[in-house]
Amino acid sequence: MTVTIRRGEPHDIDSLLALVEEYCAADEHRFDSSVARAGAEPLLANDTHGVIWLAESDGVVGGYAAVTWGWSIEVGGLDVVLDELFVRDRNRGIGSALIDHLGRDCVGRGVARIVLETEQPNERARRLYARHGYTADTSIWMAKDLR
């Protein structure tokens, strides 16, 4: 199986939303297609806010990684959030290919740090990220919804 990693484009929205729905089900998040569409469309349109990388095999999109831009005084510049990563067919190296690709892209953009979060019970994801050099830190993410 040959996997191609490519930047998502506006015409990919339906394929992406199907994967986002599967991601939400797997992580037990509520899926709202209008919210997901509002979050994804700007990332597919251009790279002002970030980028969505798609993993495609035989013309079928089977995974994605969403990376969004930030800024950090702590690291002295551009940092990004690996907001979501999902692969439909696991254990085939597709997640690793996405992680490697987005890492190279971030280096090329001068990114100082990539941060991500995982759900507490998702040991499998943390093992994948650890294999690619990510380490757990002592930070605790907190959130406040404004809508």
Strand content: 25-35%
Question: Stretches where pLDDT falls below 50 for ≥5 residues?
Answer: none
Gross geometry: globular
- Which class of secondary structure composition applies to the elements? alpha+beta
Number of separate helices: 4
Order of helices and strands: EHHEEEHEH
Mean pLDDT: 94
Strand order of the largest sheet: 1-2-3-4-5
Rg (C-alpha, Å): 15 Å
Q: Tell me about the biggest sheet? A: 5 strands, mixed
> Residue share in helices?
25-40%
| Number of E strands | 5
Q: How far do the termini sit from each other?
A: 42 Å
Main attributes?
alpha+beta, globular, 147 residues, 4 helices, single chain
Describe this structure as you would to a colleague.
This protein has 147 residues and is α+β, with helices and mostly antiparallel strands. It has four helices and five strands. The chain has helices at residues 13-27, 33-45, 94-108, 123-131; strands spanning 4-7, 50-57, 60-72, 77-87, 113-116. The chain has a five-stranded mixed β-sheet, with helices on both faces. A hairpin with a 2-residue loop joins strand 2 (50-57) and strand 3. Helix 1 packs across helix 2. The longest helix is centred in the first third of the chain and has 15 residues, at 13-27. The termini are far apart. The model has no long low-confidence stretch (mean pLDDT 94).
